[in-house]
Amino acid sequence: MESERLRQLKQQKQLILNHLDWINQEIDRESIATIPSKSPRSNRLAEAIPEDREVASSLEIESSPSSKVASDLYQELGPDAKNAAAETRRGCLIISAVAFTALAALGAWVIYYY
Fold first, then answer.
1. Tens digits of residue pLDDT in 54-101
2. CA–CA separation, 73 and 81 (whole Å)
3. Phi-psi group of 29: left, alpha or beta (phi > 0 → left; psi -120 to 50 → alpha; rest → beta)
4. If we measure between CA atoms, which residue out of 49, 45, 24, 47 comes closest to residue 37?
5. Residue 107, CB half-sphere, CA atoms under 13 Å: how many?
6. What per-residue string of b and e applies to 31-61 under the rule 16 or more CB within 10 Å gives b?
C-alpha cells in the first residue's frame, strides 16, 4: 500500500502537470494571435486572393488571360513575389550552366584519356 505522503506527492505532481498543460495551451494561443499575417510561414497566396472572389469554373486559358492574372497576383503579393521569381530563374540558370560545364569537362576527360 502507498503511504499518505506518496499519494499526496503523486496528486501534487498531477496538478502541476495539468497546470503546465494549461500554460502551454495559453502560450500557443497567444503565439498564434500575435503572429503577423505577413510572416514567412503564412500562406501569402491565400491572403492575396479574397474568399469572396469568384473562381473560374474551368481551367481554359482563354477564360483568364495569364498576363493579367500574374500582374494582379504580383500586385497583391507585393514586391517580394516578383523578386523571388527572378531569383529562382537566375538560380536555375546558374545551376544549369554549372551542370553543363561539368558534363563538358567529363566528356573532355573521357575523350582525352581514352
1. 666 655 555 555 555 666 666 666 666 667 778 888 999 999 999 999
2. 9
3. alpha
4. 47
5. 6
6. eeeeeeeeeeeeeeeeebeeeeeeeeeeeee
Predicted TM-score (pTM) of this structure: 0.32
Q: Is residue 53 left, alpha or beta, with left meaning phi > 0 and alpha meaning psi from -120 to 50?
A: beta
Place of cell 573521357: 110
Q: How far is CA 112 from the centre of its chain?
A: 47
**The residue to which cell 495569364 is assigned:** 66
CA distances from residue 77 to 41, 48, 56, 59, 86 in whole angstroms, order as listed: 14, 6, 20, 22, 15
Helical ranges in the chain per DSSP H: 4-34, 44-48, 66-77, 79-113
